[in-house]
Amino acid sequence: MKRQVDKSSPPSGFTPDAQSALERAGFSRRAFLQGTGALIVSFSSLGKAAAAGAQLSGSRKTPGPANIEVDKFGAHVTLGAPPPDQVDSWIAIGPDGRVTAYTGKTEIGQGMETAQIQLVAEELCVSFDSVHLIYCQTPITPDEGITSGSQSTPANFNHQNLAQAAATAREALLHLGARRLGVPATSLVARDGAIEVQNDAARKIGYGPLIAGKRFNLHIDPNAKRKPMSEWTILGTSAKRPDLPAIVTGRFEFVHNVRLPGMLHGQVVRPPEVGATVISVDEGSVTGMAGVVKVVVRKNFVGVVAQKPWQAIQAAKRLKVRWSSGTGLPSQANYYEHLRRQKSRDSMVVNSRDVPEKLAGAATVLKATYYHPFQMHGSMGTSCAVADVRGDHATIYSATQSVWPMRSTVAMVLGLDPKNINVLFRRGPGCYGLNGADTVTYDAAVLSQAAGKPVRIQLSRKDEMAWGENYGYPFVIDERAGLDAKGNIVAWDHEAWLATLGTRPFYDRPGNVPTGMLLGFDPMPFVPRSPAPEPSRYNNYDNFVPSYCVGRVGEKAEGTGTIESERALVHNVRSPFFTGPLRSPERLQNTFAQESFMDEMAAHVKADPVAFRLRHLSFPRLRDVVTAAAHAANWDGRPSPKPTISKTGIVSGRGMACVPYSATNGYVAMVAEVDVDQDSGRITVRRFVAAIDVGPISNPNGLKNQVEGGALQGMSRALGEEVTWDDRKVTSIDWATYHTLFLGIDVPKVDVVLLNRANVYATGAGEVGITVVAAAIGNAVFDATGARLREVPFTPERVKAALGLRA
Amino acid sequence: MSTITLKVNGTTHTLDLDPSTPLLYALSDDLGLRGPKFGCGLGECGACTVIVNGEATRSCVTPLNLVHGAEITTLEGIGTIEKPHPLQKAFIEEQAAQCGFCVNAVIMTAKALLDRNPKATDEDVRDALSNVLCRCFTHVRMIRAIHRARQEMAG
Hints:
The complex is a heterodimer.
Chain A: H1 16-24, H2 29-36, H3 46-51, E1 91-93, E2 99-103, H4 112-124, E3 131-135, H5 152-156, H6 161-181, E4 188-191, E5 194-197, E6 200-206, H7 207-211, H8 244-248, E7 264-269, E8 278-282, E9 292-298, E10 301-306, H9 309-318, E11 320-323, H10 335-341, E12 344-351, H11 355-360, E13 364-372, E14 384-390, E15 393-398, H12 403-414, E16 421-425, H13 437-451, E17 455-458, H14 461-467, E18 475-483, E19 489-500, H15 514-518, E20 566-574, H16 587-604, H17 609-615, H18 620-632, E21 650-660, E22 667-677, E23 682-693, H19 700-719, E24 749-754, H20 773-785, H21 796-804
Parallel strand pairs in A: 2-3, 7-17, 15-16, 19-20, 23-24
Antiparallel strand pairs in A: 1-2, 4-5, 5-6, 7-10, 8-11, 9-10, 12-20, 13-18, 14-15, 14-17, 18-19, 21-22, 22-23
Chain B: E1 2-8, E2 11-17, H1 23-30, E3 49-52, E4 55-58, E5 71-73, H2 75-78, H3 86-93, H4 103-116, H5 122-128, H6 139-154
Parallel strand pairs in B: 1-5
Antiparallel strand pairs in B: 1-2, 3-4, 3-5
């Protein structure tokens, strides 16, 4: 009963981004096999699920033997996961007709709970309110890997997984109804939770009596008919989020609110400097403190457990730990130059091999270098987890985006068999990628194992920022392009340096996040390689490829751009800090460079930035968002900068940027309108206008929410956010030292144009909007002032420096 | 340890706690309330905001001995799922949340402001929110929700 795996598609759990990042990092098939070889197929236990408080509707037995699917990395471990090819793994209908849906894609504030309920309700022809969705509870939900990479909609809203399971269930109900009503299925309809005879609504039978609490016992039918958008009544509407009433009234259970009988509270003591190791711990220093239960030391992991959280915090502060001095850090002032000089692992993403000759023959060659810093997820709440490790079993409450992979890696951390571990997702603060949720899950697990009791831990703000999360990657990017005499781009050379250390732990690398490393697990190995081997295939969909070149080189010609000569070379350098996939990883930094450079080229040939983009774009969906955003913004078509610019006082301008996210996963164009105070260097964004196309829209209001949030989060990242450090340690450790935009700012207007499309794949929407923000703002500043910003964040000092460089 | 009396959402509780313990821990761990949250522990972000004697107060940096006997209101105390406060209702109507972790900060800060000054201007709202954080950046909707509630509360 093995699910067919398309060898060309990324395996479940690995987004295209993750896959290419793994390949670039040299993560080999062999290493993966070695890492996962010890894991054995087993059966899941429903008893545990019930104990964990999971709500089940209808009778549901332990799912059958799990399958292991061999993928291109070696193995996809699905230990006892409900088999994804079975309808019963996704859909259950109770005797009362209420529907319980199970999914492996979680809610992290992006609205995925609401949209998935809409999907199930639509395909099953029941009301929104009659569907209860259970997400990411390892004992009972299918293993869909990680909720990341804007892959939840692609995974569950197209012709597979949750969508296809619901469609199959509806068809099965029609056939059951045909038998019960003695009418051919073709003359029946599913409506409002019942199967009824067409044109004779009095003859009908409800789903409850029809299935009578039994299982479907069916494979997902790839040919089950999905409802076309023209028939949607629930999908495509702005259904309200079912979680908000509890959230806004303080009734909602975040992971922070999980309370277990006999639960203790932990706190950790992190190294004072990067690279510092434990020499000794004086447990006596906390002896006699009120409530202290235990001091826990494992390699470089140090923590305390106490009766109450405040007691644990006080004890962690008081505990005397001798640390070695750290390894020292490269100077932040020269970090970007430092990056260029390090040993690197080089990857040639695309190479048409004719770039040097095309550049030599070009009428003009332009060059520019762009810089992007380490940035934080900086979640609103610090990370928290609750673990209950008893002997050889464990129950873990975690806000991880990866419950199944977490089950495997927390098993490694605890030295337990993964089949004895349940990971139960509970929501945390918005995470945007890889905040401290995974690392704190290890903290809780280790403390609970040592204490023999349930332990809750929530990190301090400093520990979250300096030793909790995996930062977004820093980048240095050299752009070089040749233009012909008519001002058309003939060749584009993109060379990037970025720094990485660790990433998600996936199924076998706890050392990819801080606590794992402190416990003695290694992060993903760094193997320098230079020069880069020539690409064995043309990876036009990689995050490093400019939109104007995407798909135009190699065997594929369905890309978005027109430029046929390109090279994209990446140098991956070892980072001193842990890094990970912060919202729009790589694509955001590369797009900042590419869309700013596009604007520089347009200015050089005195072309209108929108017209110049359209000249180099072939793909209709990307062209359409550019046109729609420009139209909605009442775009003033002319070259930038503005013809007459005052060099003092406040001036205003507009800028545009666009991107196909991961080449095919959503399309956005954004116009930013800014004021620049040339005396203070302060930028104020007045308005964003975004046009977005993510295929068929599940929930228009939810999509707008994502784009609005992406625009403003992108603005905060563009204007102020930067991780700072001195020669030994991270120094951005709270909201006074890591600069974000608070709610009291003069909030710009955000207008969002939604381009709804039927009959195309539903794509992700969480990351596409934020990707273009820094370039749109930088381009608007150039339009207003004639000064080009090439380093994020655009602090007043940097703006003033750029203004000073004007001719 | 010493005996502390807390009046929370109209109910009086007697707790045996170290008086230097910040109020937040008593509320979330001893009383099991879910509204106020730990965001930074430094009074910088607002996640822990409660209303003490009418003032928006950062409970993560307010020791228990300062609020002994005071009237404390949390997010749970201003409305219920069935009967939400106008601010809570407005947040639902505007769908003004993403992860929802900061909602306590925003609503409780706005409530203290509007209770004190029902005619608060946009400038007043911005001032009150100048040190309140939302890291999902749901700013547009949250400001809209506050304006909506302000209108309703003004009658």
